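Researcher: Hi, I'm a grad student and pretty new to this. My advisor asked me to get structures for two proteins we've been looking at. I'm not sure of the right format, so I'll just paste the first sequence and hope you can take it from there.
Model: That works fine. Here's the first sequence with its structure tokens right after it:
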Amino acid sequence: MLTKSDLLQILTNKGIDFQIHNHKPLHTVEDSEKLRGNIDGAHTKNLFLKNKKDEFFLFSCDEKAKIDLKRFSKSIGAKNLSFANEFYLQKYLGIKPGSVSALSLLNDETNKVSFYLDENLTKNSVINFHPLVNTATISIKTEELISLIVENKKKINIFSLENYSIVKVYE
């Protein structure tokens, strides 16, 4: 599994422009708003979900987004979604609670996790995520994040919270 330093080395080797912001551990959106300081770009909340069939989903959305989990579940055809526990976070994403991030998909070697990215996030030039730990925030250009994830053979479903549907897919 990749570590923060592995991830930063990958980004550097690929020539991806990013900024790293170190801070105290952030476990919630509320922690982030209070403690992160002034960091430009869209800030995210990330929901790692599973259903009773042991199918896994990561939904990255704007930190202020209101999500109707039942409606989201129905719209993607995944009944009975609930939050996945710490065991699955470590097993599939190689991270601890509070560190969930689209970048953790790079640890999903078997492509077990389906990824959904809030359409509103894609309208920002820069997105902020945890770089596999919750003691830092990484600012990365949206287009570079999308390219990195697709390059690593991860499908990205761009999801509209306005009409609860997939509006675009990157493969």
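Researcher: Oh nice, that was easy. Here's the second one.
Model: And its structure:
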Amino acid sequence: MSSLLIPMLEGTLVSIKIFLFTLLFSLPLGLLVERGKRSKIWIVRKLINLYIMIMRGTPLILQLIFVYFAPYYILGTSFNRLNAVIFAYVINYAAYFAEIYRGGIQAIPKGQYEASKVLGLTKAHTFTHIIFPQVVKEILPAMGNEVITLVKDTALAQTIGVAELFRVAQTASARQFATTPLFIAGVFYFVMNAGVSKLFDIAEMKLNYYGKA
């Protein structure tokens, strides 16, 4: 059993690395994309809308394959496999997060912007100290769903040969002619998602002072 658990734990660490780096870069990028979608420059809006349409309209698995293989055929070089996975996940999830941010921002009453202007607050101060904290509470349920999906989507990294949790389980299952490694992988994914769900529950409780969303 230890000979099975050790490689699966190593695969789990790779999955966690993909998960954390994706969140680290896609959350702020999603906010920038949302801002670009509301840009006064029409060409920026068109490009952002096209980007979001492509990211949401094509399977993540195809985006992974494109990001990994396209540079080789175009430039004669290629990404490191893990870097390709992280890059593909970041640009994919940033598009989804941008739409979630947009929904949260649009849910804030316009009167709050007007009141802040009357009080002499700058646009930056209004957004960071008044609007954004409310947006965070508004979008937490939708954001939680996407983050949980991300945990499960890390399994797609095996498409281009990254030895994350699911690939390790598949390899062990094929070698042993048994489904036990796959069931163990399922337990690992469940534990990770349970942890993510708990963190979002805590975050929602902490933000209850804003009242019911």
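Researcher: Is there anything I should tell my advisor about the second?
Model: You could mention this: The chain has a mean pLDDT of 90.
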